[in-house]
Amino acid sequence: MTDTTLQSPAPAKVKVETPFQRFRAEFFESRIAATAFFVLVIIMALAILAPWITPQNPYDLAQVDVLDGRLPPGSEAFAGYTMWLGSDGAGRDLYSAILYGLRISISVGLASGVIALFVGMVVGLVAAYAGGRTEAVIMRVVDLQLSFPAALVALMLVAALGKGIDKIILALVVAQWAYYARTVRATALVERGKEYVEAAQCLGLSKTRVVFRHILPNCLAPLIVVGTVQTAHAVSLEATLSFLGVGLPQTEPSLGVLIANGFEYMLSGRYWISVFPGIALLLTVASINLVGDQLRDVLNPRMKK
Amino acid sequence: MTAVLEVAGLKTHFFTHAGVVKAVDGVDFTVNKGEVMGLVGESGSGKSITGFSILGLIDQPGRIVEGSIRFNGDEIANAPEETLKSIRGNRISMIFQDPMMTLNPVLRIDSQMMEAIFAHEKVSKKVAWERSRHALGLVGIPSPEERLKAYPHQLSGGMRQRVSIAIAFLNKPDLIIADEPTTALDVTIQAQIIHEAQKLTRQTGTAMIWITHDLAVVAGLADRISVMYAGRIVEQGLTDDVIDRPLHPYTVGLLGSVPTANKRGERLFQIEGMTPNMLALPEGCAFAPRCRSASAACKAPPPITHIANRDIRCFNPQAQAAAE
Amino acid sequence: MSVFVIRRLMQALLVVFLMSVIVFFGVNIVGDPVYMLVSPDADQADIEAAIRRLGLDRPIWDQYLLFLKGAAQGNLGDSFIFGEPALKLILHHMPATLELAFSALMLAIVIGIPLGLFSGLYPDNPISKGIMAGSILGFSLPTFWVGLMLILLFAVELGWLPSTGRGDTATIFGIETSLATWDGLRHIFLPALNLALLKISLAIRLTRAGVREAMSQDYVKYARAKGISTKRIIFVHVMKNIMIPVVTVMGLEFGSLIGFSVVTETIFAWPGMGKLLIDAILQLDRPVVVAYLMIMVLFFVVINLVVDILYSILDPRVRLQDQGA
Question: Is residue C83 exposed (0-12), middle (13-18) or buried (19+ Cβ within 10 Å)?
Answer without folding.
Answer: exposed
